[in-house]
Structure formats: structure tokens, C-alpha cells
Amino acid sequence: MKLQLLQKLILSGIFVLYAMAAMAQDATQTVKGKVTNANTGEPLDSVLVRFEGVKKGVLTSADGTFQIVKKGDTNVLVFSLDSFDEKRLEITDFNQEVNISLSSDIRFNQYGQIVERKELTSEARNGFITWESKDKKYRLWMDNRIYLDGAHYFDNYDYNKTPDENALEGRVDVPDQLLKLRRMRFAIKAIVGDGWYGEIDFDFDGNEVDIKDAYIRKILGNWGQIRVGQFRMPQGMEQNTTSRYLKFIERASVAEFNPNRRLGIGYSMWGKSYELGIALHTEEVRHVLDFTNNDPDPNYFKGEIPGAKPMLGVSTRGAYYFVNETGRLLMLGAGYSGRTPGLYKYPDNRIKYDPKDETNVSELEWTVAKVNDVKWANNFNVEAAATYGPLRVSGEYYYNVLKRNEQLDPVKYGGFYVETAFLLTGESHAWNYKEAEFTQIRSKGKAGALEATARYSYINLNDYDTNQTFGAKDQYTVGLNYYATGNIKFMLNYSYVNHDRYSNGAGDYAQYIDIYAPAGEGGFDYGFIAWRCEIDF
Asked: What is the CA angle 483-484-490, rounded to 5?
């Protein structure tokens, strides 16, 4: 018995010693290996080798070798060295030596200069592809749009008669289109560190490249921002609202008075209760289609028009928010812009206003003003907007004064619009106080958002005192918008246009008006239904 007991004790001791040895061996698992340069094959000295999750490690020797005892709960080794990409390797066999190579993280541009690198992560933000650095100082994103428009016009043309017979009766054919590529925009926007921002925006309407926005912006912290390049000049609420957030397919006719996009330099500042902006500008970037039939005159750019000078102008806008809360807004604003006519365009110092009938499917223009001998164009406006939950009401009034040569009296035009929108599905209207514009509608549910709209607009290009009469028109529009998602929108408008007899396309359609509307009667009136399919991405 004593012998058997002794044998059991000896065997138990041997087992315990073996287990302790095994545990000690596991506790001191060691990895050996060598680190080399992936580009040259040479050993790398002073590479930090550590287990993931552990701050301390070992450094490789001059010949690139290392030996490290396992620490922590992971088998993943991390290799780090300045100017090289960090690398991770999972160890599956501690008895096998590790041979690993590191690639240099130094990159060169096409001129052989070392460039700073920032790792960017990519994601879709509300359907817009975005790349951004971890510190959020660098960001690049796409902002593209496709608008497919169509319209049917209820004109007075009689298709049972010949074109000559229709002409004799003053009947006009306003051509329909099932679908037209109204806009195909491609934009790239970027934040490149320390408040610097750049944007380029192209439109490919008509299979031609048209530069829209192209500017540099510097954010000045609480002091606002400065922009240099081509951008929207600061005047007009609707004019400064991007087209994808408009309530109607086209802007009201009075937007024609605004300077729109111009090359210039501008400053703006904002707060929760206000926005202020001012800009100095010259011409806009010329579009190739602008030079059709030498209108405007391309010889300006060749220096062949005596005395020609580029346009010079100033534009301002200010808005104050009496109420600016989620779902509630009360805003009042005003603006002024003034400019020379830009002698590159016409040799007779002409200002031209040619607002379409709030449709771009048809190219016909009835209310067209051409005023010669202009020295300075003044444009004043006031604007107001109010929202309460799903209801929105807004409008603008414009007063335009064309100062001519001293022996000629100034020409005065004007107009306004009032519009309302109601979100039938209960959403509220969002306001961007930094830009003083309405922004994206976000639907409450997966079914999307539905909106009913109505607008009355009026523009008067008649100045009877100076005999500069080019027409006036009232326009009534109702619409329905369906926001399928934050990126998909469908729009349907019905509009009726009431022209006076002076609205004859600056004489282009005078023969039709004289026949169709005898003296003392109104001009060519018609209605149309228009539709749009839109995607923003």
C-alpha cells in the first residue's frame, strides 16, 4: 500500500511539473523575425514591433531582426516606422520565424516633390458620394443633377390649316416636348484644410459645356467667408436658392433682373438671426452658345471693339430672421445691385431683359426688353418669407431703373411674385440661415413627401414715359411635388400666361399680335402643363 501510494504521488508530481512547464512555455511564447524595405530589400532598423493593443514593444536591430515575447490577448503583431505604412500580421505559429517587408508611405507628385498624405474614408451621405479624412479637415464630394422636363402648350394653332393660313390669322405654334434634358450638372466640391473650399460646377445642357460655379472660398471662422471666382451674386431669395430646392419647375420672371452668376469677389457673414452679403463683379464666364450670330460680339475678346470695357458691378443682400426655429421662420430681406451694361455684348450700351414664360421647354420669348444708351443699371428688391410647420409663404418685389445718357430720361421697370407651398404629408420647411435660402425637404416616412404649391408672378417691361414698352405679363401657376426620396423628385405644374399687346418678342412676333389682338386688346395668352423628373446624387 505504501509503495502504491508513493508511486501515485510521484506520478502526480511529474504531471504537475509538466503542466507548469507547459504553462510557463505558453506564457513566454516568443516571436523572432526580420523586417526589410519592400522597395530595396534592405533591412530596416528601429522598427517598432508590438502586439496589437499593447503600447510597448521592441525595436529591430541594425540587421532588421527582432525578438518579442507575447503580451496581451491577441496574436496580431504591429510594425511601425516613420515614413512607412503601418502593417499588421497575425501569428499562427510561434515556432516559425517571421519575415515581413514594409512599404514607404512617402509619395511623390508628377514633379518629383514629396506630397502630404491624408487617408480618406468613403461613404454615401444622403445619396451623395463623399470622401473625408479622419480629422475632417479634408473632404471631397460629388453634387450631380439630372432634370428631365417636358411640356404641352395650349396655344391657338390650328393643325387643320396650313402654316401660312395660321400666320394670316395670327396663330402661333408653341412646340411641345415629351422630354427635354433641362439640366445635366456635374459638380465636384472639396474642403482642402484650414477653412479652404473649392467648387467646380458644369452643365451639359444642349450637349455643350457651360461653366456654372467655379470659385475658391475661405471660411474666416466667426467673421464669415470670402469667395473669389464665378458664383451667384448676393441678391434675391429665389435666385440664390439652388434649383433642386425650388418649389416650381422654373423661377419667377422677375429673377431676370438679378445679376445671377458673375466673376467676382464677395464677402458674406451670418448668424442665427441674420445674413449679409456683398460682392464686386465683372462679366460671367462666356458660354459657347452665347456667341450665336455674333450676339454677344466675340470681337470684344480680340480687342477689336473701340472703347469696349468689361462689365463692372456691385451686388448686396441682407436678411433678418425675426423667428428662426425648426418648423418656424419669419424673414425680411432687401438687396441692391448695380452694373454697367458691359460693352463687350452690344456696341450701343444695351441692357437686355428676356424672361421666358417660366418654362424652358419652349424657346419662345414674348416679353423682351432692349434698352440702348444705358450707363448704369440699378436693381432694388425686398423679400419676405414665413413658415409654420408644413405651410410656407414667400415673395419678392423688384424695382429696376436704367440710367441712360444725360439727355435721356431713366427707364423704369418692375415686378413681383408671391408663392405658397403646403406639405400634405406633414413635413416642415427647412431653412439654411448661412445662405438665407430654403433647403431640402426630408420626408417623415418611406412613402415620401407630397407638396401642393401655388404662385402668382408679374413683370412689367413697359415704361410709357420714355416710350420703352416691351411688354408685361401676369402668370398663374399651381403645382404638385412628390419627394420620393431625398434624391428623387417629381414635379407637375400648370401655368397660365396673360401677355399684354406689347409682349411681341421685341418685334419678332409683332405680326402675330397685330392680327390676333387688334388695337386696344391684350396680347397672346396661353396655358401649359409641364413636368419634371429629377435625380440628385
From this structure: 60
pLDDT tens digits, 388-417: 999 999 999 999 999 998 889 999 999 999
**Nearest of 204, 200, 199 to residue 183 by alpha carbon:** 204
The cell for 263 is 466673376
CA-CA distance, 23 to 20, in Å (whole number)? Answer: 5
Query: Is the bond into 175 cis (omega within 30 degrees of 0)?
Result: no
pTM of the model: 0.79
Q: What is the DSSP string of 298-320?
A: GGGGGT-STT-----EEEEEEEE
Q: What is the 3-state secondary structure (H, E, C) of 200-213?
A: EEEECHHHCCEEEE
DSSP string, 414-468: EEEEEEEEEETT-----EETTTTEE-----SSTT-EEEEEEEEEEEEEEETTTTE
Grid coordinates in use for 441? 425637404
Q: Which long-range contacts (CB under 8 A, 24 or more apart) does 162-171 make?
A: 167/511, 167/512, 168/515, 169/515, 169/516, 170/511, 170/512, 170/513, 170/514, 170/515, 170/516, 170/517, 171/512, 171/516
253: left (phi over 0), alpha (psi -120 to 50) or beta: alpha
For 162: left if phi > 0, alpha if psi spans -120 to 50, otherwise beta; the answer is: beta
Q: Which neighbouring-strand residues pair with 481?
A: 451, 491
CA distances from 187 to 139, 204, 262, 284 (A): 14, 11, 17, 18
Query: Which residue's C-alpha cell is 515575447?
Result: 69
DSSP strands (E only) in 110-253: 114-115, 120-125, 128-133, 138-142, 145-154, 177-192, 196-203, 210-219, 225-232
Distance, in Å, from the CA atom of 147 to the CA atom of 411, rounded to the nearest integer, reads: 37
CA atoms within 13 A on the CB side of 82: 1
Report the phi/psi class of residue 381: left, alpha or beta, with left for phi > 0 and alpha for psi in -120 to 50.
beta
* Contact between residue 414 and residue 256 where contact means Cβ atoms under 8 Å apart: no
Residue of 434, 421, 430 whose CA lies nearest to 393: 421
How many other C-beta atoms lie within 10 A of the C-beta of residue 418? Answer: 16
Q: What is the pLDDT of residues 485-523, one digit of tens each?
A: 999 999 999 999 999 989 988 777 777 777 766 666 778
Q: What is the torsional sign of CA 359, 364, 365, 370? A: positive
* Cell 396650313 belongs to residue: 162
